[in-house]
Each structure stands twice: as C-alpha cells, then as structure tokens.
Amino acid sequence: MPDPGLSLSQLHQRILDAIRKEFPDRYWIVAEILELHVNRSGHCYLELIEKSEKDDSILARARGTIWASRFSMLRPFFESSTGTQLKSGIKLLFRASVEFHPLYGYSLNITDIDPSYTVGDLARKKQEVIRRLREEGVMDMNRELPFPTVPQRIAVISSETAAGYGDFMETIENNSHGFRFETTLFPALMQGDEASPSIIAALDAVFEKISLFDCVTIIRGGGSRADLECYNEYDLAYFITQFPLPVITGIGHERDESVADLVANRALKTPTAVAEFLVDQMLAFEFRLASLHERMTRSVKRIVQTRAAMLERYGRDLQHLSRAFIHRKREHLQQSHLLLRRLSGNYFSRKKDHLAMLEKQAALVDPANIMKRGYSMTLREGKLLKSVRGVMEGDRIETWLSDGRIISNTEKTIQENGKKRDQL
Q1: Based on the structure, what is the number of domains in the chain?
Q2: Among candidates 296, 277, 262, which has minimal Cα distance to 217?
Q3: Smallest Cα–Cα separation from 241: which of 255, 259, 226?
Q4: 53 and 19, same structural domain?
Q5: How many other C-beta atoms lie within 10 A of the C-beta of residue 68?
Q6: Are residues 47 and 123 in the same domain?
Q7: How far apart are CA 75 and CA 92, in angstroms?
Q8: 0.85 exceeded by the pTM?
Q9: pLDDT tens for residues 228-284?
Q10: Are 198 and 189 in contact (CB under 8 A)?
Q11: Phi/psi at 320 (nearest 5 deg)?
Q12: What is the maximal distance between C-alpha atoms in the chain?
C-alpha cells in the first residue's frame, strides 16, 4: 500500500515547528505599509511590502498584525513622535515575531515601532521630491512669476467648512482700509490621501477661468503634521510650479515648510496671514499711488513755476525788444520821411524846371507868338493849309495875322517851282 503522505495540518505543524526553531526571537524589520485596517475590536491588520529601489516593483509581501492592547499604545506614540498617521505609503522600522497559524498561515506579530526611522524616511521622501523638482528645472517657476500690483480677483482653493477659510474671508472682507476683493471658492479636500488630487482638480478648474483671476490661494486651518504630508507630494508640487498665476499657500503650520510652500509664489503660515498679505499689497499700491500723486503734484507745481518765471522773463524781454523794435522802426520812418521829402523835393524841382522849359517851348511854337513875329496862318473851310495843292480858284480862304483875320477868294495858285497851275 503506497505511503499516504502528510496531511495539510501535519505539514503546517512541521512548518510551525521549523519557524519556532529557526526564528525564536523578535526581529527589527523594515517594510512599507500597503494596506492598513483596524477592526471593531481594535486589532490592526496590515499588508506589508518591500519595493525595488530601481522600478518600485514589489520584492516581498507579508501580513502583519498589531493586537489591540499593543496597538492602543503604539499608535498614539508613533503619531505624536512622527507627526504623521499610520497609513498606506509610509515605511516602518518595527519589531516583530514570525508567526505561523495552521488556519491563517504566515504573518508578522508586531510588538514595537521605531518612529525615528519613519521620520527620517518622510524627510528623505520630501528631500527626494525637492531634488527631483530642482533637477527638472521647475522649482522656481511659479516663484518667478511677477506678482500682480493690484491683487483683487482671488481664486480660493479650500474646504468651504474649514475654519481657516472662514478666518480668511472675515479678514479680507472686513479689512480696516475698506478695500474690496472678488473671491471665488473652488472646493477641495485639504488633508488626507485624496487631498493632492483634489487640489490639483481645483487648480484645473481655476485654469479654465484663468482670465478672471489675479492669483490663487491654497488655504486650510491648523492641523497635525500628519495632515500636511499631502503637501509634500510630487504631483501637487509640480502642478503648482507649472501654474501660470501666482500661487499663495496658507496651510496653517508653524514648524515646517511643505514642498508646496517651497514652490509657491508666496508661502504664509495661516489663512489669516494670506488675507493680511493681500490687504497689505493693496495698501502698498495705495501708498504708491499717493506717492505718485504727490510727486506729480510737486512736478506740476515746479513746471508751472518754471514756466511762469519763463513767461515773466519772456514778457520783460518782449517789452524791451518791442520798444527797441518800435524805436528802430520810428527812426527808420523818420529817415525814410526825410529821404522822401528830399527826393520828392528834388523830383518836383526837376519836374518844375522841365515844365518851365516845356512852357517856353510851347510859347515858342504858339501860333500867336509866331504871328507876332510876322508870320500868318491860312485856313480853308476851317482847316490849316500846308500846301497849295488842292486849292482852286475862287476858294474862300481865311488868313490869320497877329492882330486879326483876312478873308479872301483865290484867284490863282503858284507852286514853289514858279509854275502857275492851270485852273478849269
């Protein structure tokens, strides 16, 4: 008859014996939490893994258990020491015994946790994110964006019920200077594992209406260090670096800066500080306007005074120059008058002499004077005779002398050559 072999329980018993023999003590083990669940009895059940540093592939997997009595002490000690919660994604250095149960198989019974290792790992992860952002050359991209001179249109990413959001709105709406702001809330989860993708989704929503805003604020109230781990995630930090508007963070922490703070255009401690910063920016702009107004007023006054002095000087110069000009023109007119009188006198004197000469010449050729010298003038039919031609016998002619007229009839005419002209 063949050997029936081992039953499953017998095999498990041998495994249990071997484990107790080979792993009699408790061991310090490093592993990452993949899943964590606390049941009603207070027992904590974990899925633990080890990842490859090269490609994040899972190299090993095991179940872990922290019994309620131990978990009630380890959990608050760990969270108060590290400032973070026991949750998926963090690494632990824990002490555990190797257990094997015939029904439930292999597991690790955790009895102690070293929080200092987790603190160092979280810090290492944070520094790794910062290093990666620096290597990609995006660390300062949002910080280098020019901040608006008048930041009045504010996109607010927060939880509507958060106390920090209420503080922000109270401060910004009731500021003592009476500045008016336009705020639009884009709701998001502000802590926990879903906070990072929720804030990224809100930033996407702002981007769709980007022309309506001057800057973006990411605000939340105070919380534990564990609540802030989401602000160290690479995806959120990278998204902030690429956002085209200045991002202001007011996450509500005092002790440490998150990666989101480091890449934001402005990082302030609390939502109230963010509101006060925005009010201060408006106040600074008002001061600049007042300063510009004062400078412009002084400049205008100086220009007016300078121009008035110039006009006064020009007026005096014009008065002096006009007087000199009028004096020169008066002298010129006087000289011209004298010259005109002299020239006109000479002209009229010459014309008078010329007229006198013409008068003498006219007197010489005056028929009356000529006839006084023994000459006469003969007319026929009122026309002066200059030749005997055309004069017929019997023509009545009139001869003018200096002392009278002789009227006669022509008997005959004799030409200069002495010939008698025959008359019909």
Answers
A1: 3
A2: 277
A3: 259
A4: yes
A5: 13
A6: yes
A7: 12
A8: no
A9: 778 889 999 999 999 999 999 998 765 668 899 999 999 998 899 999 999 999 999
A10: yes
A11: -65, -45
A12: 213
